[in-house]
Amino acid sequence: MLTGHKWFQNLPWYALALQAVVPPPLHQRSFSTSISVLRSNVVKQSNLVSRQCRGVRVYDGQRCTRTVKADVICTDESQLYCHSHQPKVETKLALPTTTTTATTAAVPASASSTSSPPILTPCKPLYDGWELWINNKLSRKKRKEIRQEMRKPLSQRDQDGYIYAYILTHGPRVPTSKYAYFKIGRTIDPIRRMYQVSQKCKYVPEIVELFPHMPSASQLKKRLTTANAIHHPAIIPKCPVSHRVERLVHLELSGLYPHAGFNCKECGTKHREWFRIARQRKPGGSYATDHELWMEHIRPVILRWIQYGIAVTAIQHQ
Question: How many domains does one find in the chain?
Answer without folding.
Answer: 1
